[in-house]
């Protein structure tokens, strides 16, 4: 089925600023439990929107509610939309998992007025190299992390809920922060020669992938913070990367119009997905209009979504070398799946967010067994 446009959010009013590159939506994110959506709508503003969207946005007959969002709001009053003014252009967003008990003590110590409940947080990466940490339920600013010398381009929390945050920056470094220790910087990873565009932590928390404006991708150990290997295969800058939910696969997207699927344990190249142009290219144009911007895995791990400069959102099944569906979208910059499936959110250069239907699938028993095994066994162990 072709993706259908479910809803579109646009910035409420035109901004008074006339800055270059200040209205883009560089990042969109769903909280891991699916109860919040964060949108960097440009001009320094992040909107925190309770999910599911209010009914005026959603066509009749489409049910996007997650069970958890109903349960979480019971007895506490429905959560309200929040506006976070970050004071700088926002490039990156990441939600934590629900924090562990030590994390709860930390926030309570900083803000005695914050009730002692598990605290969901949002990290925002800014134009001046700062990272601001917000409490989602209240919209309070909890921490300000300083260290990067240039734009913070991407952020990633460890999926284990340990409140370790990785940041990627145009200063060519990645930095590791421990929010349980007042946001202490515990490591700087250097080695990239270009701006770092993207960082992704494997769901088993063993590896970190980083993509810079280079043809190779770096894989780091999340235990020792050392470089494991470089993955070589792209012909131009790699700009986006994502691990499959079982950590067994890694996808990387590049300006060379290709997505490569890798085995991160062996470094083997498993598949190449080429973005062919559907329309004839513009005359006298040297620009790759199929240059990729973003790639992400679906939550069950059977599909990929990609956003490219040729004004298309594509959906791919892992077994096939051509997309199974297309949707027209102009100026796309980023994409992410709703954690319970069925919806893809995309952000655009005009500061808009669009929500699309995504394939709903019942995973086969074979896929579920493989996912269960691969979530704790490496390729080498499986082969042995």
TrEMBL record:
UniProt keyword Repeat present: yes
CDD domains per UniProt: WD40 (cd00200)
Keyword Repeat: yes
Keywords, comma-separated and alphabetical: Repeat, Ubl conjugation pathway, WD repeat
GO terms under biological process: protein polyubiquitination
SUPFAM superfamilies: WD40 repeat-like (SSF50978)
Matches recorded under Pfam families: WD40
InterPro entries membership: WD40/YVTN_repeat-like_dom_sf (IPR015943), WD40_PAC1 (IPR020472), WD40_repeat_CS (IPR019775), WD40_repeat_dom_sf (IPR036322), WD40_rpt (IPR001680), WSB_SOCS-box_domain (IPR051983)
WD repeat extents: 122-144, 145-180, 189-230, 231-272, 285-319
PROSITE patterns registered for this protein in UniProt: WD_REPEATS_1 (PS00678), WD_REPEATS_2 (PS50082), WD_REPEATS_REGION (PS50294)
Pathway annotation: Protein modification; protein ubiquitination
Free-text function comment from the UniProt entry: May be a substrate-recognition component of a SCF-like ECS (Elongin-Cullin-SOCS-box protein) E3 ubiquitin ligase complex which mediates the ubiquitination and subsequent proteasomal degradation of target proteins.
Name of the protein in question: WD repeat and SOCS box-containing protein 2
């Amino acid at each position: 089925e072709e993706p259908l446009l479910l809803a579109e959010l646009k910035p409420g009013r035109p901004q008074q600023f006339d800055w270059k590159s200040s209205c883009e939506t560089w990042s969109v994110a769903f909280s891991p439990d699916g109860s919040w959506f964060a949108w960097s709508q440009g001009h320094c503003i992040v909107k925190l929107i309770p999910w599911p969207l209010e009914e005026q946005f959603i066509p009749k007959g489409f049910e996007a509610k997650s069970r958890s969002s109903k349960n979480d709001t019971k007895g506490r009053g429905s959560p309200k939309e929040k506006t976070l003014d970050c004071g700088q252009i926002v490039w990156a967003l990441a939600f934590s998992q629900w924090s562990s008990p030590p994390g709860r003590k930390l926030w309570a110590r900083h803000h005695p007025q914050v009730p002692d409940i598990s605290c969901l947080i949002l990290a925002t990466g800014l134009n001046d190299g700062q990272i601001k940490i917000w409490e989602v339920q209240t919209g309070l600013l909890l921490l300000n992390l300083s260290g990067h010398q240039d734009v913070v381009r991407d952020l990633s929390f460890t999926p284990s809920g340990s409140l370790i945050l990785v940041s990627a920056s145009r200063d060519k470094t990645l930095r590791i922060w421990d929010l349980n220790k007042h946001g202490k910087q515990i490591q700087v990873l250097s080695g990239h020669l270009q701006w770092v565009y993207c960082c992704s932590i494997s769901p088993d928390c063993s590896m970190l992938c980083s993509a810079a404006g280079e043809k190779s991708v770096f894989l780091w150990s999340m235990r020792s913070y050392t470089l494991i290997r470089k993955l070589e295969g792209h012909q131009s800058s790699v700009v986006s990367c994502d691990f499959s939910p079982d950590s067994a696969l890694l996808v990387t997207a590049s300006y060379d119009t290709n997505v490569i699927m890798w085995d991160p344990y062996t470094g083997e190249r498993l598949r190449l997905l080429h973005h062919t142009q559907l329309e004839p290219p513009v005359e006298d144009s040297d620009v790759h209009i199929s240059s990729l911007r973003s790639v992400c895995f679906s939550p069950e791990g059977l599909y990929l979504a990609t956003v490219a400069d040729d004004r298309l959102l594509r959906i791919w099944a892992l077994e096939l070398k051509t997309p199974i569906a297309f949707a027209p979208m102009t100026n796309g910059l980023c994409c992410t799946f709703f954690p319970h499936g069925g919806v893809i959110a995309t952000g655009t250069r005009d500061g808009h967010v669009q929500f699309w239907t995504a394939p709903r699938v019942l995973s086969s028993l074979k896929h579920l067994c493989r996912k269960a095994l691969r979530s704790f066994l490496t390729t080498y162990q499986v082969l042995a």
